[in-house]
């Protein structure tokens, strides 16, 4: 079956002759009509919408994404979710040295491999078969991805908080998720995801993409965003920061004073802080799903059992003192900049208040 699929893809790619090894605007313009035909999905195998398998087929949008990625000579490109290779072909035809594509569906692996071979660019492509959240990525300079919505947050966490050093990531995301990602303090959509990503990177919305540009057509539109990691690492323990933002944004419509005045919250933080002093706290690792989620914070006050009201009272005063020093007790988390949140976290930590 794999040989049949490969042969079909090879004959189809050669027949349309849709991509050359040049990347000039004139050649792209001349081949526009051929591109439109070559990107049409002919239903060779079934696409699974529940798995987020929606192929981008509009050649103008594909060209725009490849252009926005701003690939430079010698770049190593990581593509997540190449599908049948509509965008991969453009990346291979660019100035980049090579493309490493991560794909979990073996049918797609066969299709994109055959397509690269048909274009005479197989030597520039390496396909890694596996789950993008689980596999180890090779070294890369630029990431380009059409991400299934279900793995958007963990994949971005892996890129930004993993061991990878890269220049930029150009990501095609569900429009609603993209809007949350680029939200700024004071926006109605500002959230924990945006705060966590902006701690380590700059994010920019590049363009919107209609749901009609995909096969099969999804229920919602998409957007393309650019993420650029910052050169300087933040001067904060990332695990502590992520736990802190989970507490703050878990009740983001309340003021910080109201959030940290709750008895169960005080007892939970007291328990965590005691464990940290005793060396039993979290090791500070960053979970791949740790960036998102503004639901109510799970509070566990069991660990505070066995301690006196006096000890809890003293701890509560430390919390109040940090809020007073920061002059943020009357502020809501969704209105605060990362600099203000970082200052408050440092004041908490100085007073022995820990969040993980």
UniProtKB/TrEMBL annotation:
<dbReference type="GO" id="GO:0003723">
    <property type="term" value="F:RNA binding"/>
</dbReference>
<keyword id="KW-0949">S-adenosyl-L-methionine</keyword>
<keyword id="KW-0694">RNA-binding</keyword>
<keyword id="KW-0808">Transferase</keyword>
<dbReference type="InterPro" id="IPR011530">
    <property type="entry name" value="rRNA_adenine_dimethylase"/>
</dbReference>
<feature type="binding site">
    <location>
        <position position="103"/>
    </location>
    <ligand>
        <name>S-adenosyl-L-methionine</name>
    </ligand>
</feature>
<feature type="binding site">
    <location>
        <position position="56"/>
    </location>
    <ligand>
        <name>S-adenosyl-L-methionine</name>
    </ligand>
</feature>
<feature type="binding site">
    <location>
        <position position="54"/>
    </location>
    <ligand>
        <name>S-adenosyl-L-methionine</name>
    </ligand>
</feature>
<protein>
    <recommendedName>
        <fullName>rRNA adenine N(6)-methyltransferase</fullName>
        <ecNumber>2.1.1.-</ecNumber>
    </recommendedName>
</protein>
<feature type="domain" description="Ribosomal RNA adenine methylase transferase N-terminal">
    <location>
        <begin position="61"/>
        <end position="231"/>
    </location>
</feature>
<dbReference type="InterPro" id="IPR029063">
    <property type="entry name" value="SAM-dependent_MTases_sf"/>
</dbReference>
<dbReference type="InterPro" id="IPR001737">
    <property type="entry name" value="KsgA/Erm"/>
</dbReference>
<keyword id="KW-0698">rRNA processing</keyword>
<dbReference type="InterPro" id="IPR020598">
    <property type="entry name" value="rRNA_Ade_methylase_Trfase_N"/>
</dbReference>
<feature type="binding site">
    <location>
        <position position="146"/>
    </location>
    <ligand>
        <name>S-adenosyl-L-methionine</name>
    </ligand>
</feature>
<comment type="similarity">
    <text>Belongs to the class I-like SAM-binding methyltransferase superfamily. rRNA adenine N(6)-methyltransferase family.</text>
</comment>
<dbReference type="GO" id="GO:0005739">
    <property type="term" value="C:mitochondrion"/>
</dbReference>
<dbReference type="InterPro" id="IPR020596">
    <property type="entry name" value="rRNA_Ade_Mease_Trfase_CS"/>
</dbReference>
<feature type="binding site">
    <location>
        <position position="131"/>
    </location>
    <ligand>
        <name>S-adenosyl-L-methionine</name>
    </ligand>
</feature>
<keyword id="KW-0489">Methyltransferase</keyword>
<feature type="binding site">
    <location>
        <position position="81"/>
    </location>
    <ligand>
        <name>S-adenosyl-L-methionine</name>
    </ligand>
</feature>
<dbReference type="Pfam" id="PF00398">
    <property type="entry name" value="RrnaAD"/>
</dbReference>
<dbReference type="GO" id="GO:0000179">
    <property type="term" value="F:rRNA (adenine-N6,N6-)-dimethyltransferase activity"/>
</dbReference>
